[in-house]
Amino acid sequence: MEIVFIAAAIILGSGALATGIGFALLGGKLLESTARQPELAAQLQTKTFIMAGLLDAVPMIGVGIAMYLIFVVAG
Amino acid sequence: MATTRTRFIALPLVRWLIVEFSLLMILSVLWLLESRLAFYSAFIGGLIFLVPNTYFVHRVFRYQGARKTHLIVSSLFRAESIKLALTAVFFAAVFILMEPVHVPALLITFAVMVVMGAFLRVLVHPRPRR
């Protein structure tokens, strides 16, 4: 039973870590590119939004699977 | 001295919601072929994706313009963490409170919405207006 909770914790933890690194890189690039070309700020914001969707797809599914493990498999 | 006009962008929240909600309805109706339980489980799975993401889109497009980029980035980080937390809370609530639930329909619809949603965001083009 404990192994299920450990698995869910690993999924949630690694998902959060990866999302944090990805969003830090994405936000840094947005700041950098907007400082370089401020007239493109609106387009860059939309592109950041699109990339954010691609970035957090896997962690979001991971959250769903982890909740399933905690509340259905172990519960 | 020349006056500079600020460019505003129409919030693409409504357009994004229409696109995502259409996808959710198509997926839910497909699950109706399985059973009514699968239909509403799929619909709930889609809503678990849709509600936190609506908040995310609202927060990301709250600030616009090159002068407010630092606010956009901080808003992006905050929105993402709240979105992940909300998703976890909604899943927990569904698994605890909803009985019975068709788990494959719930999880597969959620996963398809997440993957397709990332690509459907390309359809959201904010229209610049003066």
Q: What key attributes describe this structure?
A:
heterodimer, A: 75 residues, mainly alpha, B: 130 residues, two-stranded antiparallel ribbon, 4 helices, 71% helix, flat, disordered N terminus
Summarize the structure.
Chain A is an all-alpha fold and 75 residues long. Chain A contains 3 helices and no strands.
Total beta strands of chain B: 2
Structural class of chain B: mainly alpha
Cα(first) to Cα(last) distance of chain B is 20 Å
Kindly estimate the percentage of residues of chain A that lie in beta strands according to DSSP. Answer: under 5%
Could you tell me the mean pLDDT of chain B?
84
DSSP summary: helix tally of chain B:
4
Structural class of chain A: mainly alpha
Our measurement of the CA-to-CA distance between the termini of chain A, rounded to an integer number of angstroms, reads 9 Å
* Main sheet makeup of chain A: none
Radius of gyration of chain B from CA coordinates: 18 Å
Query: What can be said about the biggest beta sheet of chain B?
Result: 2 strands, antiparallel
- Per DSSP E runs of 2 or more residues, the count of β-strands of chain A stands at 0
Q: What integer is the average pLDDT of chain A? A: 90
The residue fraction in helices of chain B comes out at over 70%
Commentary on this structure:
The complex is a heterodimer of chains A (about 80) and B (about 130). Chain A has helices spanning about 1-35, 40-55, 55-75. Chain A is mostly helical and about 80 residues long. Chain A is elongated, with a radius of gyration of 17 Å. Chain B is built from 4 helices and 2 strands; from the N terminus they run βααααβ. With about 130 residues, chain B is mainly α. Chain B is flat, with a radius of gyration of 18 Å. The chains are: A mainly alpha (about 80), B mainly alpha (about 130). The interface between A and B is large, with 38 and 43 residues.
